[in-house]
Amino acid sequence: YAGLEDSKAFPLLMIRWQIDEQWYVGNPFTPGPIGPAGLEVGYRSSENWSLALGSAYRSNRFALDDMGMYSGGFGEVEGIALFIRSSHSLENAGELHLYAGTLLAGKLVLDDDQGVTQGKTDFDPSLMIAIAWQGRF
């Protein structure tokens, strides 16, 4: 993927392994607080309900505004997202997904407008909660 002033690449392993009728391992491509991809282990208790535990590496680079200490610079947040998801099929109305999770090993890096790192800090995990609806029409 392309960053603001540099490019990075990492491999994406696509998996969909149906272990048995209820258990699977795969990529969580449904909408959620950590975005798509990563890897999850899921259990489908019925046609309408499923529960999954998953994780994904995330790195988000963004531009800083023109005011402040590192005006015109860049920030980057990275870490390992860990989440649990409960999903319910709403028949013809789509699917409802409930998430709870955290970002582990979180790091914030600030670069000036020349791309030189001016500051780095680690941050503690914090709770993420999200509700997502996915439908077709």
Can you walk through the features of this model?
The chain is an all-beta fold and 137 residues long. It is 0% helix and 55% strand. It has strands at residues 16-18, 23-26, 39-44, 49-63, 74-89, 95-111, 117-123, 127-134.
Features:
single chain; eight-stranded antiparallel β-sheet; mainly beta; 55% strand; 137 residues; elongated; 0% helix
Short characterization:
With 137 residues, the protein is mainly beta. The protein is built from no helices and 8 strands.
- How much of the sequence lies in strands comes to over 45%
- Averaging pLDDT over every residue, what do you get? 86
Number of strands: 8
**Shape field:** elongated
How much helix, percentage-wise, in residues?
under 10%
Largest sheet: 8 strands, antiparallel
Radius of gyration: 18 Å
Distance between the termini: 31 Å
Order of helices and strands: EEEEEEEE
Please identify the structural class as seen in this structure: mainly beta
Uncertain parts? none
Distinct helical segment count:
0
